[in-house]
Amino acid sequence: MATTANPSAPVSTHEGVPPLRAGQGHSFLLRKLHSLSGIIPVGAFLVEHFVSNAFATRGPGAYAKQVELLSSFPFVFYLELFGIWLPILYHALYGFYIWFRGESNVTDYPWAGNWMFTAQRWTGGIAFFYIVWHTWHLRFSGVHILTHPDAAFGKVQLEFQHAWAIAFYALGIFCASWHFAYGLWLFAAKWGITTGDTARRRFGYFCFAIGLLFMTVGALTMRSFLKTPLQPIGPENGIHDSYDGTAVPAYRSR
What we know:
The structure is a single chain. By secondary structure, this protein is mainly alpha-helical. It has a single domain (28-227), classed as 3 helical TM bundles of succinate and fumarate reductases (Up-down Bundle). It has eight helices and no strands. It has helices spanning 28-37, 42-54, 60-71, 76-100, 111-140, 152-159, 163-190, 197-227. The termini are far apart.
């Protein structure tokens, strides 16, 4: 005679990663949305953002054209609001909620897995605060780069005039790359896409390669901003940028 498993019974996670299961309290849907939002749309945006910023390796002109392309989308504010900002905010805040509830996995995961899970939380927290700082400066202070895309390259360079900002950029790129790569592995394991130790191990190698690729692209992009001569950011003489309060040179006529 068939029996129904008790939904309140604990699920062993010592071997592998526990899948998302219905019937484990009211947080099931929120957890599912949290897991999914880390891949779509937040992960998809991260891929696009790294690709778009990589145009800096082709020079200020190519970077400005990419910014202009992105800013030319119809309803760009609403696309960003509902496709980027709100999903990131939800993913981050619910992640902090899980973290600060003190849900420890010390007894459920092997030693290495426990450290990986802890690193996932810390990299997510650091990446979130980096995104807030980075977005505020580039999008909502000083020269508006969507209106003046030619100012975008120079505005990033203005950040790089400070050693602490360079270090924070490097840390943000590392944390975002790690968090996405390991999050992709967790997503596949929890949603039952990869089943069994062999499949998870092989996919883990793939995710590790993705993380390294993102870090490499980010490092090469930073190098382009650092190595290129400082670009002007103002379309008019004497425009000020809020980053350091100093006037920046205007564009020369071509």
